[in-house]
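hey m, so remember when u said the tokens were messed up on ur end? i reran from scratch. heres the input so u can diff it against urs
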Amino acid sequence: MRIFAFTDIHERMPLLARIRRIVARERVDVVVCSGDFTIFGRSTQKMLAAMNSLGAPLVLIHGNHEDESEVRSFLPLYPNIHFVHDAPVVLAGYTFLGFGGGGFSHIEPDLVALERRHAAIFNDRTVFLCHAPPYGTALDQVEEGWHTGNKSLVELVRRRKPILVLCGHIHECFHVHDELAGTLMVNPGPDGEILDFDD
């Protein structure tokens, strides 16, 4: 499976045009966005429409800039978008599940509850999306020694061991990779990254 992942694009349409070209050229199976595709929800429908036509199925969660209910209200118009906040979907033989929004709390009781609800779906072919990064890793360090991420996500990774975690939110950590308990964790940045997994 070939993923093209991006995050925190914040309405930059030229970047979406570039992503569309990459998806076509590199034969991407699934495109993934880890939230903050708008600027405080200003152009939600416009951005969804643009992401719907990237040339591959799009897996999406909302970030702290989007309203979950507003995103959901537009989804019937965009059949190529799979909104995986608390709603797993299987694409290209992998299960995608996410937890959107937030990004400002070390502990997320709603994420803990989501993990319990979906415990049975986690295996070595599960990709987990979270707008917030995992606490105490290279992906949540705003500056040396200042960690801003989510401890609930760290515990999920340790217990469930998904093959990949894709996050965003911390702009200082774009294109940073880390690993925890055998799980690759990536903040792919707004210009995105290709990630390959053997079938």
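this time it looks ok to me. The longest helix spans residues 13-26. if urs says something different then somethings off w ur setup not the seq
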